[in-house]
Amino acid sequence: MTGKTAPPAKKPSPAVAKKKAAPAPKEGAAPKEGAASKEEAAPKEGAASKEEAAPKEEAAPAPAPAPATEEHTATEHPPEQPPAPTDKPAPTSTEAGAEATPVPAEGSPAPSAESPAPAPEPTLEKPKEEPPSCPLSLAVEEVSENSFTLTWKAPEQMGRAGLDGYVVEICKDGSSDWKAVNQEPFLSTRYTIPNLGSGDKIHVRVVAVSASGTSVPATLEQPVLIREILQLPKIRMPRHLRETYIRRVGDAVNIMVPFQGKPQPEVSWTKGGQPLDTSRINIRNTARDTIFYIRQAQRGDSGKYELTVQINGAEDKATLDIQVVEPPGPPQNLKLVDVWGFNVALEWTPPADNGNSEIKGYRVQKSDKKSGKWFTVLERCTRTSCTISDLIIGNTYSFRVFSENICGLSDSAAVASGVAYIEKTKTTYQPEKIPQRDMMEPPKFTQPLTDRTTTRGYSTHLFCSVRGFPQPKIIWLKNQMEIREDPKYIALIDQGVCSLEIRKPGPFDGGVYTCKAVNPLGEASVDCRLDVK
Fold it and tell me: Where is the composition biased (Basic and acidic residues) (predicted)?
């Protein structure tokens, strides 16, 4: 201590004081804006705190005169700086209208408990199940004088809970009061709305119902006019009934013939212009078809039945041809006509009863006495006679014939009264007499000798062919001298072909060689020249 007093602090210039005091109104702006500013600042607290944390930490080691300057500035401009609350520091905002929680600097007191709490995390809600989609293809199927029938298709999406059913609602034209026709949902995609007034125009819609809610309604674009649509009667005879309908005796006949016409037509069946026998034939008619039923068909039920559909003088007719058949009877008058060699001829006549069907053929069988078994010889023979061949000599045969129609073979067969015994025929061999032919012929060469040239020391052959009967004798000559048993020469004859082999000829073996053929009728000869080089 020297006893000197410190000089008074210099009063900052107004410009400096004004420059340093400028941020003060920004810090004090939050209280002036009221509750609205605080609500807007709440979402931005986290971001503002992070942005402002670094500057405030740098501001911690600021020089000591700074508080004095702020204090002095606040003293000089009291109207612009509103008093800050003493229990919490003034908030600092980086954006207009945003308030963030300040981060305390080093050595500064912790923020008070009245600071705004962080926003709670949102909880995930389970997604609600979607209701089914709208029914598809809503259309009017039929309209009568007091009702109409709707049809539609199931919706594409039915939801997890599945479909409980459909509700049909109607509303008269010109009104907006929709009324449900059915009290409980139903699953059928077809519904008839009854008890309607003739001439009314009805709007209709259908909704799909499930546990998750109801769908958007499917609505007809135009109202439905309740009136009867007249339609001429028409029989729609099935294709398989346009031809003869064939059944076996004892089978059931159950035929359904659909028809159309409005109002509902009158249906009648007749046979030969007479009403049907209701004790044997049952007829049941509906609005769309008629059913013809016979429990056990008999041959007497065969014939042509006429169906008539009539509405107020307009009518349509169709004919149903029924044929009741059974297996035919056996052929008649089967007999053996002839037996010769290994063959048997049979004849018979058609059966007396063809089973109410055309005979398609006959089946012929044979049986030999030794085995006693029947074997089919001919199948579906179309004639009433036949010839059976290839029978075994010494066997005795029996024959039977079945008749056949569309039902199959007859229950029994016609058996020939007699049997066929294939006898052993005695035969003697008589050779064919062939006229003797004069085969005598003098010798004649068919292939002459040919001139040849050979090499010294290499064997060579001379060939010619001759014919004649008796077989001629062959003589070989060299230069008109007969060649006898000389080992140098080998002479052969085979099937009229004459050959002479000259083994390892030398220069002296060359010359003219002659082949002469001689028999009692004459002789012939041929010659050739051989050169040895």
Answer: 35-59, 69-79
